[in-house]
Amino acid sequence: MEDVVVTYDIHSLLASPQRDFLIRNNADPVKIDSLNGKRVGLYFSASWCGPCQIFTPKLEEVYNEVAPKGDFEIVFVSSDWDEGSFRIYFSKMPWLAIPFSDSETRGRLDELFHVKENGIPRLALLDETRKVVTENGVDLIYEHGVEAYPFTLARIQEFKHREEEAKRNQTLRSILVSPSRDFVISSNGNKTLVSELEGKTVGLYFSMFSYRSSIEFTPRLVEVYEKLKAKGEDFEVVLIPLDYNEESFKEGLKSVPWLTLPFKDESISKLFRYFDISALPTLVIVGPDEKTLQPNAADAILNHGIAAFPFTPEKFAQLEEIRKAKDDSKKEEKSKDAWVCDGQVCTKA
């Protein structure tokens, strides 16, 4: 079944009965008809949203490079709770916006582009014919930046093919090396070349030092890491830090023995999406052949400790058999305990 391509009339989409204009951050009005023939991004965001605060500067970098071409514009659709917050946040943006006072249009756009279900930041991209190219423009910008321009379906399809090819030919270098960096770092700042990790089992630890689940899991991973090191196993952990605060990151790094990507490294958001991270913490296991062994070994670490090493499918199958055997044994004991004997006869309780 083919995907349904949705097309909108830009004026009907953005206007209201009382308004046929958008505004700049100095409150100057701009006619909606000025968008005719342009590609348009609808940016759903808010000042109170931490992920939005991170994404907005990235979007601005792309906008500032693409906008001078004259065929692309962004329209900010605010999810702020009050006009003062909207004005302060919008004052730093170089693009247009739906007036904050038009809550009806903002609400309608939220519904049309599934903001409530998917959250913010959200970037819907429409081509010059007003077809919706993607509602997932945030990932597109994070992963490809200005290279994503001109934001066409063909361009997005090209990226999908590239990603599939990259996963087929995955290496530690393709995962961890960036154009500006071929190393990871330790807590004391020493650099380790990514090439030195080749041939090892590597855990990519997606975590945040201030996140409760990470705070609870990290000591367990430290214990397993140190035991495997003591046994001479070729195992390494590379932290993929998702912290917002650099001081929190630096302080947390002192408590762990492994390597890390630099704070807010350009590869972090790309890896987050490449491995389709949906929960924290996540420990992706990459085998000695540099292919992904496990999308998340955190539960295995919690339940089995070093017995989960080397995290292969065969090892996990063995652990599952052990778990089933224990469950069966518990059921059998429970079944025995369910009998009550009074000296003359035994009956089920």
Automatic annotation (TrEMBL):
<feature type="domain" description="Thioredoxin">
    <location>
        <begin position="12"/>
        <end position="161"/>
    </location>
</feature>
<dbReference type="GO" id="GO:0004791">
    <property type="term" value="F:thioredoxin-disulfide reductase (NADPH) activity"/>
</dbReference>
<protein>
    <recommendedName>
        <fullName>protein-disulfide reductase</fullName>
        <ecNumber>1.8.1.8</ecNumber>
    </recommendedName>
</protein>
<keyword id="KW-0677">Repeat</keyword>
<dbReference type="InterPro" id="IPR045870">
    <property type="entry name" value="TryX_NRX_thioredoxin_dom"/>
</dbReference>
<dbReference type="Pfam" id="PF13905">
    <property type="entry name" value="Thioredoxin_8"/>
</dbReference>
<dbReference type="InterPro" id="IPR012336">
    <property type="entry name" value="Thioredoxin-like_fold"/>
</dbReference>
<dbReference type="InterPro" id="IPR052259">
    <property type="entry name" value="Nucleoredoxin-like"/>
</dbReference>
<dbReference type="InterPro" id="IPR036249">
    <property type="entry name" value="Thioredoxin-like_sf"/>
</dbReference>
<keyword id="KW-0520">NAD</keyword>
<dbReference type="InterPro" id="IPR013766">
    <property type="entry name" value="Thioredoxin_domain"/>
</dbReference>
<keyword id="KW-0560">Oxidoreductase</keyword>
<comment type="similarity">
    <text>Belongs to the nucleoredoxin family.</text>
</comment>
